[in-house]
Write a structure and sequence with these properties.
Layout (H helix, E strand, L loop, with lengths): L1 H21 L4 H15 L6 H28 L6 E5 L3 E6 L17 H11 L4 E7 L15 H19 L7 E5 L14 H4 L2 E9 L3
Parallel strand pairs: 3-4
Antiparallel strand pairs: 1-2, 2-5, 3-5
């Protein structure tokens, strides 16, 4: 057991020395470490400069997509019902004001469907994941109705948007996540005047790429 213990300690020491060695931001050290790993795996090495260039190009492409989405909304004069924000999550389209659904329903309105189709066509050939989040106001579901609670209603709203983008715009269904949050993530105070604003769907074009 002493030999096994000694081997384990030697490996741990080597591991920590390696961590200390690559902890420095020196690009030269990083490139050497990457070359060593690539050689051992039989792969072509990738330099720090190449990685940085690829990251900048990816970010520029993402920002450009955000600008295109904003242009579509502006051209359609939908600024009052659709808010676009590019943040750490990705490109977030917040369809507000009850423009997407009537109270207690999960059918996508005809007036907003062209926008969803346009966004679907824009991201169809891109690798990004898409997260659709459904939200309701704080009105309780009617007893005996189609949706027993706001959980089912919010999930149905998210699924309805996904269905439009997959079945009508032809986006790969494997890229989507549909989530229902009921009334528990409101944007505004839960008052009667704000119910339509809290009854919404958020379409998030994630910065994360599609899984292979």
């Amino acid at each position: 057991w002493l030999m096994t213990f000694g081997d384990m300690m030697a490996l741990l020491l080597t591991f920590f020395v390696l961590l200390i060695g690559i902890s420095s931001p020196d690009p030269g050290k990083f490139d050497k470490a990457m070359k060593s790993i690539a050689d051992s795996l039989g792969a072509a090495p990738v330099s720090t400069e190449t990685l940085m260039v690829a990251e900048k190009e990816s970010e520029a492409s993402f920002e450009n997509l955000g600008s295109q989405v904003s242009d579509v909304i502006n051209e359609g004069n939908m600024q009052d019902v659709v808010e676009v924000e590019v943040n750490e999550k990705g490109i977030v389209l917040n369809i507000v004001g009850g423009a997407l659904f009537k109270a207690g329903q999960a059918r996508v309105s005809k007036g907003i469907k062209p926008l969803i189709l346009e966004v679907g066509l824009m991201v169809k050939k891109l690798p990004y994941k898409i997260i659709v989040e459904g939200h309701t106001d704080n009105t309780k579901s009617k007893k005996g109705g189609r949706y027993p609670s706001n959980w089912e209603l919010s999930a149905a709203r998210a699924a309805a948007v996904v269905r439009v983008m997959t079945e009508e715009a032809g986006v790969d269904p494997g890229r989507f996540s549909a989530i229902g949050y009921a009334q528990f993530r409101p944007l505004y105070a839960q008052t009667k005047a704000n119910r339509a604003k809290n009854r919404r769907v958020e379409i998030i074009i994630s910065r994360e790429g599609q899984e292979s």
